[in-house]
């Protein structure tokens, strides 16, 4: 019997434009540690994760290797590969780099490099769900009333009971997500998350109820929020 392996692809190849900082946002300090290092540390310390594939802008690979991977001694990071124009392209580069290492039924978790507050429990739950269907999507119920707007006018108010906010990780059997990414690439489809590439092919993606603290660090106030959450959980020190 072959043992099942679980890898994480961490896309961190965005430009962080909405943060407006002088350095790329994943290297900004969050309670004394670069954001992306804090994210990787959750996966590094989780026994359910066998390896990590990191994706960064091509010209940041040496910096990231020295100041993140080597500086914090992340032994599970098997490679750092260059990202692409959109998040989807970056994830696909990561999946391609994992191809030789993973069997069709091994599980891959895809997690934003700038969501450092993910809990180990949600990693485990996502992996278990991904083994049983086509995909596991960590999400939280929408708290606000959401409007559909066109040209400044509301055209619909979708029933809030049906609306969830997608987070990451999103977990899949490798063969399923690789095929979905390949099809999207060939058909010129770009989605804003990985689960949507499975959904458009009729696959079954199951919700894993997430945590409102698992925020994506996007704009400056998110740093303040994330530091408050870390202080509240007693995890505000550097590793
Ligand atoms: N071409 C891209 C774009 C995004 N990402 C990654 O996808 C995650 C979510 O993206 P987002 O927070 O929107 O980051 P940016 O694209 O960097 O932000 P902005 O749109 O403000 O430039 C981040 O970890 C980001 O680094 C990526 O790997 N490759
Ligand atoms: C995948 C994601 O985290 C789900 O919320 C998110 O869509 C990625 O952010 P982006 O700003 O759309 O790149």
From TrEMBL:
Name used for this protein in its record: 2-C-methyl-D-erythritol 4-phosphate cytidylyltransferase
Classification via InterPro entries: IspD (IPR001228), IspD/TarI (IPR034683), IspD/TarI_cytidylyltransf_bact (IPR050088), ISPD_synthase_CS (IPR018294), Nucleotide-diphossugar_trans (IPR029044)
Pfam families: IspD
GO biological process: isopentenyl diphosphate biosynthetic process, methylerythritol 4-phosphate pathway
Catalytic activity: 2-C-methyl-D-erythritol 4-phosphate + CTP + H(+) = 4-CDP-2-C-methyl-D-erythritol + diphosphate
This protein's record includes keyword Transmembrane: no
Site note Positions MEP for the nucleophilic attack, residues: 160, 216
Organism superkingdom: Bacteria
Keyword Nucleotidyltransferase: yes
Source organism of the structure: Oryzomonas rubra
Family matches, as Gene3D superfamilies: Spore Coat Polysaccharide Biosynthesis Protein SpsA, Chain A
Assigned keywords, A-Z: Isoprene biosynthesis, Nucleotidyltransferase, Transferase
Leader sequence segment: none
Gene Ontology molecular function: 2-C-methyl-D-erythritol 4-phosphate cytidylyltransferase activity
Record family assignment: Belongs to the IspD/TarI cytidylyltransferase family. IspD subfamily.
Function: Catalyzes the formation of 4-diphosphocytidyl-2-C-methyl-D-erythritol from CTP and 2-C-methyl-D-erythritol 4-phosphate (MEP).
E.C. code: 2.7.7.60
Residues carrying the site annotation Transition state stabilizer: 18, 25
Pathway: Isoprenoid biosynthesis; isopentenyl diphosphate biosynthesis via DXP pathway; isopentenyl diphosphate from 1-deoxy-D-xylulose 5-phosphate: step 2/6
Broad enzyme group: transferase
């Amino acid at each position: 019997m072959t043992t099942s392996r679980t890898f994480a692809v961490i896309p961190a190849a965005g430009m962080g434009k909405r943060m407006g900082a002088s350095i790329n946002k994943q290297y900004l300090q969050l309670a004394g540690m670069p954001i992306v290092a804090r994210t990787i540390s959750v996966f590094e310390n989780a026994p359910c994760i066998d390896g990590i594939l990191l994706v960064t802008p091509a010209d940041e690979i040496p910096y990231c290797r020295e100041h993140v991977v080597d500086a914090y001694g992340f032994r599970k990071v098997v490679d750092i590969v260059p990202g692409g124009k959109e998040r989807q392209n970056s994830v696909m580069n990561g999946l391609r780099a994992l191809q030789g290492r993973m069997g069709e039924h091994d599980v891959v978790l895809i997690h934003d490099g700038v969501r450092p507050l993910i809990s180990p429990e949600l990693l485990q739950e996502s992996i278990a769900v991904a083994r049983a269907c086509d995909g596991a999507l960590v999400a939280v119920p929408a708290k606000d009333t959401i409007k559909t707007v066109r040209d400044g006018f509301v055209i619909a108010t979708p029933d809030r009971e049906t609306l969830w906010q997608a987070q990451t990780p999103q977990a899949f059997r490798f063969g399923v997500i690789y095929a979905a990414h390949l099809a999207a690439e060939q058909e010129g489809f770009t989605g804003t998350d990985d689960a949507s590439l499975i959904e458009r092919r009729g696959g079954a993606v199951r919700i894993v109820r997430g945590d409102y603290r698992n925020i994506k660090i996007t704009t400056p106030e998110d740093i303040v929020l994330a530091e408050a959450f870390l202080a509240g959980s007693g995890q505000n020190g550097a590793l």
